[in-house]
From TrEMBL, chains A, B:
This protein's record includes keyword Transcription regulation: yes
Species in which this protein is naturally found: Streptomyces amakusaensis
SMART domains cross-referenced by the UniProt entry: HTH_GNTR, UTRA
HTH gntR-type domain boundaries: 9-77
PROSITE patterns tied to this protein: HTH_GNTR (PS50949)
Protein name, UniProt field: GntR family transcriptional regulator
InterPro entries in UniProt: Bact_HTH_transcr_reg (IPR050679), Chorismate_lyase_/UTRA_dom_sf (IPR028978), Tscrpt_reg_HTH_GntR (IPR000524), UTRA (IPR011663), WH-like_DNA-bd_sf (IPR036388), WH_DNA-bd_sf (IPR036390)
SUPFAM superfamilies associated with the record: Chorismate lyase-like, Winged helix' DNA-binding domain
Coiled coil: none
Keyword Transcription regulation annotated: yes
Superkingdom in the source lineage: Bacteria
Source lineage: Bacteria, Bacillati, Actinomycetota, Actinomycetes, Kitasatosporales
Amino acid sequence: MGSQGGGRQPKYQRIALELKAAIETGEYGPGDRLPGENDLMAAHAVARMTARQAIGVLRAEGLAEARKGAGVFVREYRPIRRRGVQRLSAGLWGEGRSVWSMDAEGWDLKLDSVSVAEESPPEAIRSLLGLAEGAPVCLRRRRYALNGRPVMLATSHLDAGLVAGTAITEIDTGPGGIYARLGEIGHRPVRFREEIRSRMPAPLETDRLSLPAGTPVVLIRRTAFTEEGTAVEVNDMVLDSSAYILEYDFTP
Amino acid sequence: MGSQGGGRQPKYQRIALELKAAIETGEYGPGDRLPGENDLMAAHAVARMTARQAIGVLRAEGLAEARKGAGVFVREYRPIRRRGVQRLSAGLWGEGRSVWSMDAEGWDLKLDSVSVAEESPPEAIRSLLGLAEGAPVCLRRRRYALNGRPVMLATSHLDAGLVAGTAITEIDTGPGGIYARLGEIGHRPVRFREEIRSRMPAPLETDRLSLPAGTPVVLIRRTAFTEEGTAVEVNDMVLDSSAYILEYDFTP
DNA sequence: TAGTGGTCTAGACCACAGT
DNA sequence: CTGTGGTCTAGACCACTAT
């Protein structure tokens, strides 16, 4: 028949809409198997590519997930609540506890992999840290996993000269982490700025976070300032958007 | 030839990668026209559907935008900086200025459409506002546009009983907006909470924000509390993620 | 009108999962 | 094994844009 055939809206959209409605009414719950390509071809008398396209709509909206050789399944959404302000209270990281242990109340969020390096920073970060051109930064790359599933990548940038000789350049930064160590050398962070963006992930992020198609990432750039107003750390984070709700409390 | 043919990675991914590299090196700048389906078919000796798939990768990542009958073009990214804390300083909205006028420094962000209604709220919002079951809320739906392009939808929910008879139920809330009017009736908001999520847009959001494929939305739910700790307003916002950077400053 | 992207067909081979 | 989704082909008609 070529093009649209019967209705005025594309077949694949009609099929996608029908599937979405079935999910919304609870006919298919989180984790349930949806009709696959062959089912849709038979049920709607369309070609494989058309059935695929319908499924593609749900995938792009993050509603469904295709597992090769197994089928198409309804996605689940159970985010962690990340409190932007309280979690950085000095009382918490000042003595012992990691900044991250509060992230997932009762859940099992843990450090998955760490690497430390010294590199030449991108211009934007270099100028934030107030470093001279060509000055190296200490880079701490980390990945966090929730119940075994990776949910966040974090990369901290610090003046390499400033932190040389401290535990910040070690894999294990010790009790209280980076901020406690910075305090010990007279650069205790007291003020923070978090900048938030969102976009679709780059292939490398898709890979490192095992993201299914249709899941955006949230980017947080946190800059930590000392009492004097100097930026001592820039932490670039990449979050699986389906894993997080960010919360900020403030009294302007 | 069937399946993968030459290399070990799919043809469409190789083609997509090549296009992305060309964008990254600046060969194609923002707004430039990219090779279209026909160009890619000729250049790589592939079928139309394969060329389409390659372009689909760039669209899904938000890098390119297809305009029917015209071609495929490199997307632009020029976000507004939205300061979460300072923008709510009472000094700003206390006398006259709108909370929103600060959003876009020098840009032309303006209210695009407003509607006011009284409805029965969803359970989550009803309980946030501490209302009895079945109690109605005053709903203010607004859309904001930046240089004519819609970038945000906002829906405020307030206790209908509380705001009855005030300008909050009018299209024009008067100088200082909702928060100034709440102050006048003894419910001045002093504390705010913003919760942030991100996901792919629903079709209705895609439509109202004119979003190209591959653009996530950012959801902000702001709850405004009085000195007594009562929630007086819940504002649900839907932002075009490519139009915004959110900024939060705090001293924990 | 010529060219573009949007949609669609009816086949095909492959890698992978569980059935 | 069978069935699944992933990839690919070589055609086709349509609506839309720009000339």
